[in-house]
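Lab meeting, item 3. Inverse folding demo.
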């Protein structure tokens, strides 16, 4: 069954979000040297390494944040607490009270990954993923920003033809706290024929939208005359993302459709290992994480691509802390690292330099240390 979603086909404006304007494009940069200054600001960051490759990619992102902070004149105070499967093993629950309390008291939260085969047979309330849903609800983050940009260095890694993929630069804005993931009633029962059935409820209130979106968003659009608004059914949107992804600038959609469409969009870019995300609310700390999973099959083997987590750290700086210059510095460093030919296995092609997670992180740090991004 198809359902509607919103497409804003001009530069992103905060149609449904009370947040900083989204900036998806990295401006051209010039190289200048700068000296570290005494920290003028301090931010408290909660680190949730989680499961699988989470600790590996979080370690790289933490180092990137520490370096960029020292170069831009502020500092971070990090506190790491368990979540997901790691928390289950330590405390018996996927989201300990201490973890949620620490996250709420911080300026921003950076998450690695959650889940793994080890906990697949747990009851629902004891699954690692339940901890993530509880964390989002506890932080009251309702808007998930998932950019999907085909970088010039990786256009050949896309599964689409070059002329289709080249230049894609879109943002999926996914509602995060309603819909089928949270709707009740849910469970198992028996029908009139004695057959076992399972059921979930897709439900939205007016402030969350979904089926009400066409009515409510159309009304809101009059307040943003510079934003072109159109509506599309999700099955058509899924097809159009493959047929002509450049037609989209911003897709605003509900929880489950946003989950699916953003994963589809990630493969246009060449690898899910490249895509960051930000989950934000009206106030309080945001939650920043790569959209990839915990990849338990490569965990601990130094094969993970840390760039999605590094770019999530850039989103943390931009949307969580308002440190735009530092965010652009990290983004430029990622581009520079790719320009110099370094690739993890998921984005590798012949003629490039195949490296592991740690080496990729070290190369990003070199680029951060050597480049400052200034608009031209």
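The presenter then showed the designed sequence:
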């Amino acid at each position: 069954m198809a359902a509607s979603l919103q497409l804003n086909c001009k530069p992103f404006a905060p149609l449904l979000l009370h947040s900083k304007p989204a900036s998806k494009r990295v401006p051209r940069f010039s190289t200048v040297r700068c000296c570290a200054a005494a920290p003028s600001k301090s931010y408290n960051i909660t680190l949730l390494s989680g499961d699988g490759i989470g600790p590996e990619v979080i370690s790289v992102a933490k180092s990137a944040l520490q370096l960029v902070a020292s170069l831009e004149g502020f500092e971070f105070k990090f506190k790491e607490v368990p979540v997901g499967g790691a928390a289950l093993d330590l405390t018996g629950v996927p989201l300990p009270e201490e973890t949620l309390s620490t996250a709420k008291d911080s300026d921003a939260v950076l998450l690695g990954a959650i889940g793994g085969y080890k906990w697949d047979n747990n009851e629902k309330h004891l699954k690692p993923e339940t901890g993530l849903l509880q964390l989002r609800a506890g932080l009251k983050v309702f808007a998930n920003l998932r950019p999907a940009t085909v970088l010039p260095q990786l256009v050949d890694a896309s599964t689409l033809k070059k002329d289709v993929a080249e230049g894609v630069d879109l943002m999926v804005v996914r509602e995060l706290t309603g819909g089928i993931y949270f709707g009740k009633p849910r469970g198992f029962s028996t029908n009139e024929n004695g057959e076992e059935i399972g059921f979930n409820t897709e439900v939205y209130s007016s402030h969350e939208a979904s089926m009400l979106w066409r009515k409510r968003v159309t009304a809101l659009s009059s307040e943003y005359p510079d934003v072109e608004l159109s509506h599309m059914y999700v099955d058509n949107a899924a097809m159009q993302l493959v047929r002509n992804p450049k037609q989209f600038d911003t897709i605003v959609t509900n929880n489950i459709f946003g989950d699916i469409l953003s994963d589809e969009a990630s493969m246009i870019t060449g690898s899910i290992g490249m895509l960051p995300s930000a989950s934000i609310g009206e106030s309080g700390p945001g939650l920043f994480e790569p959209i990839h999973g915990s990849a338990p099959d490569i965990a601990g083997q130094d094969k993970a691509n840390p760039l999605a987590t590094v770019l999530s750290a850039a989103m943390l700086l931009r949307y969580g802390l308002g440190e735009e210059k530092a965010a652009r510095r990290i983004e430029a460093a990622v581009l520079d690292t790719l320009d110099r030919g370094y690739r993890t296995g998921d984005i590798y092609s012949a003629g490039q330099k195949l490296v592991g997670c740690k080496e990729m992180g070290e190369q990003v740090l070199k680029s951060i240390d050597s480049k400052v991004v200034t608009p031209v």
